[in-house]
Amino acid sequence: MPITEILEQNAKLYGRDVCLVEINPAQTEKRRVTWKEYELIEPTRTSYYRREITWSVFNEKSNRCANMLENAGIRKGQKVGILLMNGLEWLPIYFGILKTGALAVPLNFRYTSDEIEYCLDLAEVDVLIFGDEFIGRVEEIAESISRNRLLIYAGTGACPTFADDYTQLTANCSSQYTGPELTDDDFAAIYFSSGTTGFPKAILHKHMSLMHACRCEQAHHGQTKDDVFLCIPPLYHTGAKMHWFGSFLVGGKAVLLKGTAPEDILNAVSDEGCTIVWLLVPWAQDILNALDRGDLKLSDYKLSQWRLMHIGAQPVPQSLIKRWLQYFPDHLYDTNYGLSESIGPGCVHLGVDNIDKVGAIGVAGYGWEVKIIREDGSPVVQGQVGELCVKGPGVMTCYYNDPKATEAVLKDGWLLTGDMAMQDEDGFIFLVDRKKDVIISGGENIYPVQIENFLAAHEDVNDVAVIGLPDKRLGEITAAIISIKKGHTCTEEDINRFCNDLPRYKRPRKIIFAEVPRNATGKIEKPKLRHIYGGDALVAAQNKS
Length: 545
Description:
alpha/beta, ten-stranded mixed β-sheet, five-stranded parallel β-sheet
């Protein structure tokens, strides 16, 4: 069934129950709230701004959005872009788009004006709905992008002259909606790849994919109506939203936290009774470091209800989870592997019962198949490294308007992930590295993730990235960019001494103490590091040859 039916069902069964809470720790002043049903709640112990809506209001807001879009001429198969920061507006607009049979096209809030225009054109977007934070960027390109599409402002201030006002457009729209008949095979959304290797690709998914994400997540983590999910990452990305889908399926509440500071996360868990929290590696590290320093004390928070912490989006150092379980020994833990091309998390997952296998990304997820192949497409021998491939109901239809790129990664229903992996004797898959990030030094294949995980165990290291830099003799040498924990000191000699436990060919030849750049979904921006420290020269040389 289409995913919109879950919203209708939740509104009927749990209409008066709160379904979404927005918390903004940085905002203490009241602002103009344009959606009448939002309830402003004065802060109590903490000083954050909070508002909430029920399932009935969520559904009514989606219906008004759908009616507004239909009045504007949007029909099944057209595309509507969403350029909003996380907040209570985001999900009702997303589901309103889906109800019309149009495709929701979420955009990264970090996109520049040029990237916004590029993505709108690539996905052939007919309407762009944008918020306060994007007025300047949209205004820069308004003249060119408004020639063939409608611009709608869904913010809290005065509507810019180049756009129509969402509040006015929806003011007289009915809270009831009867849209076109939808099926699992109807197209639902276009997501964009993270763009760490250039301009992003447009990833086309059907309702079938979205529904499988709901079922997969709930099967993995056993969400019930009583669970409360803390959502911190951006909703434009598949990761956060698809993890929430498990709670959405059973009518559970979600808390949208607009902040990543350790204190804000623990406050939200404590005040809202959160039971499930999905973190990125840097946020988990920050919490642990704050606890190590004594900046936070667990006794100051109500955390006994918190049952599950899970991580995804990037490789997770084994040392991090060992530290986490020292502070939170009663937590269930899971790691989830996925791509936007496989509707986000869950095509491979560790499983909460496999804590002895921390360090692996796990086994095939609910409804998924996996295999590891050589360059020629044949399966590797167990224990050998090859490219990870996944197959299941959540695999994308294609890269929209890019048949060449689609052909390169879709083979007989299998998605070639571009990730190098190996499988141990128990069938658990270990992520070795991105195929394009493998370092070849003196004829040896070196996998940066293995070295990153090793260095992450150093007591002074906060974050680390390993890249290849050009070398005339060896082709490439290994460089480690290391971020040191606040209040700690560490020298190159300390790191080299620590690395004596690594095989000689894996030891970093160059140590650089600097911040490790990560994108909004927590992935290390290695192309940026290669550009800063000289790796682009290697790429250029390889391209010439």
